[in-house]
Design a protein that fits this description.
By secondary structure, this protein is α+β, with helices and mostly antiparallel strands. The chain is built from one helix and nine strands. The strands form two sheets. A five-stranded mixed β-sheet has the order 5-7-8-3-9, with no helix packed on it. A four-stranded mixed β-sheet has the order 1-2-4-6, with no helix packed on it. The relative contact order is 0.21. Bound molecules: copper (II) ion.
Amino acid sequence: MTRQLVTVRVLKLTGVLIASSLVAISGSLPAFSAPRVKADPKWVSYNSSTHVVKLTIIASYAQPTYNFDGVSSGALTITVPLHSRIKVTFTNASAMMPHGAEIVKYTGSLPGSPPPAPAFKGATSPNYLHGTQPGDVQHFSFVAGKAGKYLLICPVHNHVSHGHWDWFVVSAKAKTATAVFK
Ligand SMILES: [Cu+2]
């Protein structure tokens, strides 16, 4: 009896290992087929005295897909108060390819390549058209000076068409900064 139980447990463990391997393999497929891993809510914070938003953006987070903070294609909406200063820590967690970050005005459709200029002065990762190299961490900062609907995009060639974008909203009504996942 005991021996049988042990066998079952080993089989279960093997099953888990196989499942993990499948997840790892499917991670190389487009983002919509990959499991979702959401960011830590602490990655967005707002200081109402200094009007500073601290924002952590990680490209290719937790899985090797075209994602920001784990999600793609508009599944993340970051909202910040109008006139706040956004201090971004941007990490490219991909082991394979460059990724960047840029805030652009939403015009009713997704931008092509090359992308338009940033919506606010300084609202890109450094060298954004070429992206940040795998494993690198960079910082950039800008003032969200005009209310409206914007996109957080990866400006690297054709990445938007692979789903590498999310929403960025500048709100005159917002009292704090938030990140909402679909
Ligand atoms: Cu990208």
